[in-house]
């Protein structure tokens, strides 16, 4: 086989290797994002608000179903108040979609939490709360994939009997 015949074959092989590596890179990125989402889930179950924003960018933002936006500090204060009034029984997290585009990713997930809430009067109620969430992620050079924003859509709430 002469060089003129081998060059296109070598180029095709090189292009296939680059495509394969790019695919692996995308899989590794998605794997890291998934691992971090489940680390965030563990922080929610432990009622550790700081762990929820651990993989957030410095300008991390949370948009609630009420249309209000919170920066990191306001979110931590809001979440501390929420955690003080609930007991979490379970949290199911399902990643519905993961759209990767260059150094950005859009994640859609559904979370279902069973919790007991205690209101200001001390009345306890058990709820199943299901909500959809959109997360925007960005790849950074030093910390890997980080969340830039979280948007929670209006939750579905179903009252359950107390145990």
CATH architect. name: Roll
User: Based on DSSP secondary structure assignment, what is the total number of beta strands?
Assistant: 7
Shape: globular
Which consecutive residue ranges, at least 5 long each, have pLDDT under 50?
15-24
Question: Radius of gyration from the CA trace?
Answer: 21 Å
Biggest pleated-sheet summary: 7 strands, mixed
- List the secondary-structure elements in sequence, H or E: HHEEHEEEEE
Q: Would you tell me which CATH topology applies?
A: Nuclear Transport Factor 2, Chain: A
What is the number of helices? Answer: 3
Whole-number total of structural domains: 1
Secondary structure: helix percent: 25-40%
Q: Structural class, judged by helices and strands? A: alpha+beta
Class in CATH?
Answer: Alpha Beta
Distance between the termini: 77 Å
Chain-wise SSE layout:
Blueprint: H1 3-45, H2 49-52, E1 56-63, E2 69-71, H3 72-84, E3 86-101, E4 104-118, E5 124-140, E6 144-152, E7 156-160
Parallel strand pairs: 1-6
Antiparallel strand pairs: 1-2, 3-4, 4-5, 5-6, 5-7
């Amino acid at each position: 086989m002469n060089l003129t015949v081998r060059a296109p074959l070598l180029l095709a092989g090189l292009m296939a290797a680059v495509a394969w590596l790019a695919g692996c890179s995308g899989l590794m990125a998605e794997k890291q994002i998934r691992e971090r989402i489940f680390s965030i889930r563990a922080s929610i179950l432990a009622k550790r608000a700081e762990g929820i924003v651990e993989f957030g960018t410095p300008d991390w933002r949370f948009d609630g179903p009420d249309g209000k936006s919170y920066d990191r500090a306001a979110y931590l204060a809001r979440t501390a108040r929420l955690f003080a009034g609930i007991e979490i029984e379970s949290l199911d997290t399902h990643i519905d979609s993961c759209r990767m585009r260059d150094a950005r990713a859009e994640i859609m997930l559904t979370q279902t939490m069973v919790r007991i809430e205690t209101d200001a009067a001390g009345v306890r109620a058990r709820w199943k709360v299901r909500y959809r969430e959109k997360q925007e992620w960005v790849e950074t050079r030093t910390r890997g994939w980080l969340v830039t924003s979280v948007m929670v859509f209006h939750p579905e709430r179903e009252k359950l009997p107390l145990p």
